[in-house]
Design brief:
The protein is α+β, with helices and mostly antiparallel strands. Helix content is 38%, strand content 19%.
């Protein structure tokens, strides 16, 4: 095997490497590479090639360098040859000249909505009033979408139809290729769903992937019905028309400042993410949902109880255990002292059993099955409906309180 250095080039390895590689692939025929291996994050190289068009059989190895990147060509056999090296050299130089020259604005749309596991009538849901949330525009889709909810859990021996009013989310990303819009759009969708979930205390989820607009406008198709076809009551065809008299609802005022607050407060952003994941876990994994709700509340409590070193002896480098203290401090922002005392101990005890021993308290160990009948008591009802239900409401209140109040900077 041989390896030949072809030079150092002014490309920021981490910041511009992906874009440079995108242009290199085009410069080397545009058909792609047979393999691409990423850096190990510890100074290891990126390797790519050979091109799929068979123009060369060698590969390119790219190392980080204080002045950008260093490139070497690697091939099989005893010695390098110009026909295996020079195409890479030319391609690398062409790609360097293209970096930063192809930025354009991509507008995307995606559909979000209440999870179909929630069964509510139009009088309880209504349509969202159009709203700007951070960099995103939220607007009613104008569709009353029917959805078939199949047996999500083993105990669901029935089929259910849910009907919801999806929301259209529109965003804009400036980059050099549509593929690099997706991760930015997905992160923004996640935050939008988390804020909708927090504001409505119902789980909101993406109902589509981000979809590009073209010159004429949105290309995302909004379905009126999802799932297997089935007849409507009375034999009428389902049209997806919004029922007359459907009310509109507005996001609360605290959402106006929430996006900026989350951008500037990583601890609060982490706590909101934990709350949202707990809501997603709640139906199928109630014990993990409890643990995650508690973690979200602890995350808010970090602003009241900072990390502190142990004081057992002067040389001790361990930190004190302050997680439960943070949990209680955050609870006190929305509960009375008596309510905290009644709720905190059983919740934290179960959190610890699940977190440290893997104990399951809900129906996940029987795939959601709960015995029914006049002579049986549901052994999971108290945990899932009562204790977890209380915790979900309290976690919601704690996060809303934190996002409604002054920021850390304003408080200082």
């Amino acid at each position: 095997m041989w390896e030949q250095d072809i030079g150092t080039f002014p490309v920021a390895f981490t910041e511009d490497g992906n874009e440079w590689a995108h242009h290199l692939e085009k410069a080397m025929g545009g058909t792609g590479f047979r393999s691409v291996s990423g850096t190990d994050g510890a100074g290891g190289p990126v390797e790519m090639g050979p091109p799929l068009d068979g123009s060369v059989t060698s590969m390119l190895r790219v190392h980080p360098h204080p002045d950008g990147i260093t490139c070497t060509v690697v091939g099989d056999g005893g010695r390098s040859s110009p026909d295996q090296v020079e195409p890479w050299r030319a391609g690398v130089q062409t790609a360097v000249g293209e970096v930063g020259r192809h930025q354009q604005s991509y507008v995307w749309d995606a559909l979000v909505g209440v999870t179909p596991s929630v069964i509510c009538g139009p009088e309880l849901m209504g349509q969202l009033s159009a709203k700007k949330v951070g960099p995103l525009a939220l607007a009613p889709s104008g569709v009353y979408m029917r959805e078939f909810r199949g047996p999500e859990r083993v105990d669901s021996g029935f089929t259910t139809i849910s009907r919801t009013f999806p929301v259209m989310v529109t965003g804009q990303v400036s980059t050099y290729d549509w593929d690099h819009v997706i991760p930015v759009a997905q992160a923004q969708l996640h935050r939008a769903c988390a804020l909708l979930t927090l504001s409505r205390a119902l789980l909101w989820e993406p109902r589509s992937h981000p979809w590009p607009r073209d010159a004429t406008g949105p290309t995302l198709k909004i379905p009126i019905s999802v799932g297997p076809e089935f007849p409507s009551p009375g034999g009428q065809e389902w049209t997806g028309e919004v029922p007359p008299g459907t009310a509109n609802w507005s996001l609360p005022r605290w959402v106006d400042q929430a996006w900026k607050r989350l951008e500037n407060d990583s601890e609060l952003n982490t706590a909101l993410n934990a709350y949202y994941e707990a809501m997603r876990l709640r139906r199928r994994h109630p014990s993990l949902a409890l643990l995650t709700f508690v973690a979200a509340i602890e995350g808010v409590g970090m602003r009241f109880v900072p990390d502190a070193l142990c004081e057992c002896h002067p040389e001790c480098s361990h930190y004190k255990g302050v997680a439960e203290k943070r949990f209680r401090k955050a609870l006190k922002t929305v509960l009375t002292q008596r309510e905290v005392k009644e709720l905190a101990a059983p919740l934290y005890d179960k959190r610890s059993h699940t977190g440290h021993r893997g104990t399951l308290f809900g129906s996940e160990e029987v795939f959601g099955y709960a015995p029914t009948g006049p002579f049986q008591v549901d052994p999971y009802f108290k945990f899932e409906a009562v204790l977890l239900g209380q915790l979900a409401l309290v976690a919601n209140a704690v996060l809303v309180k934190a996002l409604s109040g002054p920021s850390n900077e304003e408080g200082e």
